[in-house]
Write a structure and sequence with these properties.
The chain contains 5 helices and 3 strands. With 181 residues, the protein is an alpha+beta fold. β2 and β3 form a beta hairpin. α2 runs antiparallel to α3.
Length: 181
């Protein structure tokens, strides 16, 4: 359930943007998302996804509807070195990057995906409860911020007083008494 393409003429940065969009999706969702994306990398990854799905169906008798994208890696390949003419006969170097793209499909675990959905639901519920606790009228928020500001200024002023009390008295150093000739 693997497929890879080597030395394809697209920069890895550009291909990785599209790859990040479809990582972890089902094959059907990824195909639809790539079909609607107007990028060269989307066309390349869509062909690679179709190849991996065909490999899974032919070699391992897996139904493509049950598969998800487990891994989708985009690695840097060699670069073509070209040049752009400049003034006075010079040449500015230009590099055309190539990529290696590999995809691995796997069977979606129904139990694991259900557990993930429950965890996400719990975390969003706890976040909403925390946000509801911090909500209040604007006057309550202003009072709380004023109280915290008073506490911080009181502690800062008391620290400054204590540092003055504990500071040793300034004594004249022998360097300060010397005069210039």
């Amino acid at each position: 359930m693997k497929a890879h393409i080597r030395s394809v003429r697209i920069a890895p940065k550009k291909a990785n943007l599209v790859a990040g969009m479809v990582r972890g999706l089902t094959v059907q969702d990824a195909r639809e998302s790539l079909r609607l994306t107007n990028k060269k990398a989307a066309r390349i990854i869509a062909q690679l996804l179709d190849s991996a799905a065909a490999n899974a169906q032919h070699n391992e008798n897996q139904s493509p509807e049950l598969l998800i994208i487990k891994t989708l890696t985009v690695n840097k390949a060699q670069a073509y070195h070209r040049g752009v003419p400049m003034a006075r006969g010079r040449v500015r170097p230009m590099r055309k990057f190539l990529s290696h793209i590999a995809i691995t499909l796997g069977v979606a675990d129904v139990e694991k995906s259900a557990d993930k959905k429950k965890k996400v639901a719990k975390s969003t519920k706890s976040l909403s409860e925390e946000s509801s606790e911090t909500k209040g009228t604007p006057s309550q928020k202003a009072i709380k911020s004023a109280q915290s500001l008073k506490k911080s200024t009181k502690s800062a002023s008391s620290e400054a007083k204590s540092s003055k009390d504990t500071a040793p008295p300034a004594s004249a150093s022998p360097r300060s008494t010397s005069t210039k000739k």
